Here is the input.
Amino acid sequence: MSLFGIFKKKSVGSEVAQPIIAEPQKENEMTQDSKRGVVRTITYVTGLPIDVVYDCIGHDNDEKGFNDAMVSLDATYLETGKNLIKNDMNKVIDQTILKYNDGIKELDSMIAYNESMGLMVSVTNLKTRKDVYLSHIEEMNGMKKQLDDLTTTTMNSIRSYERGFMRGITAKTELVLNGNE
Here is the structure.
């Protein structure tokens, strides 16, 4: 075999692997990463992690509630479903707050470095970003309190689940009355 033999075409029976081209993600599409769990892609509003929290809280769970009611009409099943949604929202909020806290630590380091170099314009910009992060954390802590109290903002996702569950109860009852179940 010559030195440049690796550049020649292979003989019969060899195949060349074609590259896999993935389709681009749509806005607000959730994808599954087998190693890390669900990955949320949000492409609107601030472009910061708080968008994921707003997406989670605003998620319509009507279909999930409907499907759960078709599985079981038990009221404890409804409460379990509502608690699962609430726990998911709490988890997303906690993860997002953690992400902001990591960002604040990085900003503090950059602020200290820029101050030591006398770059006051950069320091001002970094402090402004830190203030935004802190205000987002404060907003999310308020959301957690609302979630515990089940007040207006956080209730939409849970109400949509309840609405779907009630629709499912009605549909299943109709099936039984019509003799299809």
User: Anything to note?
Assistant: The beta strands are 30-33, 37-40.
